[in-house]
Amino acid sequence: MKLLITIVLLIISSISLNAQANLFNEAYRFNKFMNKITTPKGILTYGDIEGNAYYTNTFTSAKIENATTLINVRYNTYTDTVEILKDGSIYVLPKNEKYSKISYANSPEVLVYLNSGEMEGYYFELVPGKYRLLKKLKAEFRPEVPAVNTFTSSVAAKFENLNPVYYFEINNQFVKVPKNMKDLLQEFIEKKSEIEAFVKANKLKTNQEGDLIRLAKFINN
């Protein structure tokens, strides 16, 4: 009996190690992360640029779909890539459905990869379900702006974080949340009157993430 248990444990361990090895082996075949940007004035590293290109600067333990062990990751909102840390080196996780879900270990946050029409890239899944709610984060690079004359100051190169963009998945289509709640409600044909009553009673607004989460949970329940 002990021999049988030992064999089973060895098999499980082997599967776990192989799954993680396969993930990193595939990552090695893709790009090693380079924290550099080419500008008209030369090459800048991230350290030379003001602002932040990351959702969180530090690597965070997460469960990547089809990997059986936790892996240290961070999300680059400028390049829209997930970086993984392995033996002191940083690699870019391949963008494909095989690794399309990344669940953070120490928080309820979930990052999903989509490749459907214009919805190509990583999105935070705020509410799962038939009418799931997604959030897109993006940082853009602004090059240095030199001083025009002695009366003006130059503006340093920087990463600028754009406002989040939210999407509802409705009937397998992704709908960008508009500024007006009435326009959004037109997208929900099922139980429209109930949804409108809920929105009115709770004074929900489309420019408040918490309100969108409450609405998504209500619709999915």
From TrEMBL:
It comes from the Bacteria. Residues 1-21 form the signal peptide. Keywords: Signal. The keyword Signal applies. This is DUF4384 domain-containing protein. It comes from Kaistella antarctica.
